[in-house]
Design a protein that fits this description.
With 289 residues, the protein is mostly beta strands. It is 4% helix and 44% strand.
């Protein structure tokens, strides 16, 4: 179930998604699964697009500036004086080079570079260096109770892990960008997994983590190709077919894994009770149903 509201100036679109139990999801058809978990349109010129999941009050959004600076405003639904009054924000640029100005400090973000903005930051503006090749700022935000310093993370500063193999079609590089081993955050963690050519499976063996929820954003999906995202309880899985630059909400009780018709890249974002990246309850591949 969802609601969508657009501001009078059409600068912000805000949508709410209620939390769903495993029993509810078992009875959902294709359209219902997509309506509850898939986020299809994240990048519209000069328009902030937000989806609030009631799982950990996680906000997923995007902004593509094409006409000067655009300013981040607090939607009425947050009941806040400014967007980051009680939140923290993670940003990864998946478009052309751009710029973020946070309380007067300027950060230039190239493709696949990340920026963390701490709770209490009052003013945030976004712009593109070349409006003919605009930046696409992918945004994740979670509630925060402490103000940590804002900081840009270049790709060279990421914690990098290489996993999988060509033999199992899951040779991939995990770039931990906004995680507690790189910089302090309240609960938000974000990173980026790049699949090598010839590999299509991500996050396999699949897992759940009761103490955290997650959102996946798929991009660099070649034209004419797709990704099939798997979700649900290990013994009762479901799937959602996804296209380039779309995101999907993953409840804490659900597995989250995918396979594409080509290799691709995805950004993972997490929130919950802890910052332990290894807090996972793995499912044997042969036990999935």
């Amino acid at each position: 179930m969802q609601t969508e509201l657009t501001s009078p100036a059409s600068e912000t679109v805000f949508e709410s998604r209620y939390a769903s139990s495993p029993n509810e999801v078992k009875g959902m058809n294709t359209d219902q699964l997509r309506q509850n978990f898939l986020i299809e349109n994240l990048f519209v010129a000069n328009q902030f697009r937000w989806t609030l999941s009631f799982f950990d009050r996680y906000l997923t959004g995007g902004i593509m500036p094409t006409s000067g600076q655009v300013t981040l405003e607090a939607p009425d639904q947050l009941k806040a004086a400014y967007f980051l009054e009680r939140r923290e924000l993670g940003i990864i640029n998946v478009g052309g080079s751009g710029q973020v100005v946070a309380d007067g400090t300027t950060y230039d973000l190239e493709y696949k570079e990340a920026l963390y903005i701490g709770q209490g930051t009052k003013s945030v503006q976004f712009s593109s260096h070349d409006e003919a090749n605009p930046a696409k700022f992918y945004l994740n935000s979670t509630p925060a109770t402490h103000s940590y310093p804002s900081r840009k993370i270049a790709r060279s500063e990421a914690e990098v892990v290489e996993l999988g193999s060509m033999e199992t079609a899951n040779h991939r590089v995990i770039n931990k960008l906004l995680v507690n081993s790189v910089l302090p955050t309240c609960q938000l963690q974000m990173g980026m997994t790049e699949l090598k050519a010839g590999s299509v499976w991500n996050t396999m063996p699949a897992h759940t983590h009761d103490r955290r929820m997650e959102v996946y954003f798929y991009f660099e999906v070649p034209q004419g190709q797709s990704v099939c995202h798997f979700m649900g309880q290990p013994q009762e899985t479901r799937h959602i077919w996804m296209q380039n630059e779309q995101a999907v909400i993953s409840p804490n009780w659900s597995i989250h894994s995918g396979a594409g018709t080509s290799n691709y890249t995805f950004i993972w974002g997490m929130a919950g009770e802890n910052l332990d990246y290894g807090d996972m309850d793995f499912c044997a591949i042969t036990d999935l149903k």
